Amino acid sequence: MRRKLPDERASITHKFSIGGHEGYITVGMYEDGTPGEIFITMAKEGSTISGLMDSFATAISYNLQYGVPLKFLVDKFGHVRFEPSGWTGNQHIPYAKSIPDYIFRWLGSKFLGPEYALTEAGDAQILRPTEPDSQEKLPFPPVASDAPFCSECGGMMTRNGSCYKCENCGGTSGCS
Questions:
Q1: Residue 69 within any structural domain of the chain
Q2: Mean pLDDT of the region 157-171
Q3: pLDDT for 135
Q4: pLDDT by residue (tens digit) across 2-23?
């Protein structure tokens, strides 16, 4: 059974940017503060991405109103990977693998808990090499601490001769 929102409702709007694609997420809430609808407005009105995100938001809104738990949607759509992706400027979600990845990690962190903003590796900050516990010594040298992050996907690059290569997407640091 559908649970409609009241005619007047509280809402929150969040501006985002993913690899240069700007947009806004507006969440309409029930009286108890839980989300009941979302609107996604992309800056390039009339674009394919704008139309798809508007349709996607309508479908998600119906899911919420028909009782699909937000946690289920966050688990399903968070961490999906496709273009456009990129750096966000948000300190809690520094890199988004797709627009739905960012939206659902933001929704999860806002309405379910800050742990939903975490990356797959479990750190909300940009991934960086760490030292093993003093009790555990690795039988091989740790990742080079000067290795850059991939400009394509945000993954840690590894040395490939005098250059760096991303093991995640195959990108390089400019060498052939």
A1: yes
A2: 79
A3: 44
A4: 999 999 999 999 999 998 889 9
- Does residue 124 lie within any of the structural domains? no
d(CA 65, CA 166): 42
Among the candidates 66, 97, 117, a domain finishes at: 117
- So what's the pLDDT on residue 130? 42
Q: Give yes or no: residues 164 and 78 share one domain.
A: no
> Looking at the structure, do residues 104 and 63 belong to the same domain, yes or no?
yes
d(CA 26, CA 56): 13
pLDDT digits (tens, 9 = 90+) for 102-144: 999 999 999 998 888 776 654 444 444 444 444 445 454 445 5
Torsion sign across C-alpha atoms 34, 13, 56, 59: positive
- Tell me which residue has tokens 């503060």: 33
Q: Is 60 exceeded by the pLDDT of residue 98? A: yes
Q: With 90 as the cut, is the pLDDT of residue 27 above it?
A: yes
27, 108: one domain: yes
CB of 153 closer than 8 Å to CB of 168: yes
Q: How far apart are CA 123 and CA 116, in angstroms?
A: 10
- Is 1 contained in some domain? no
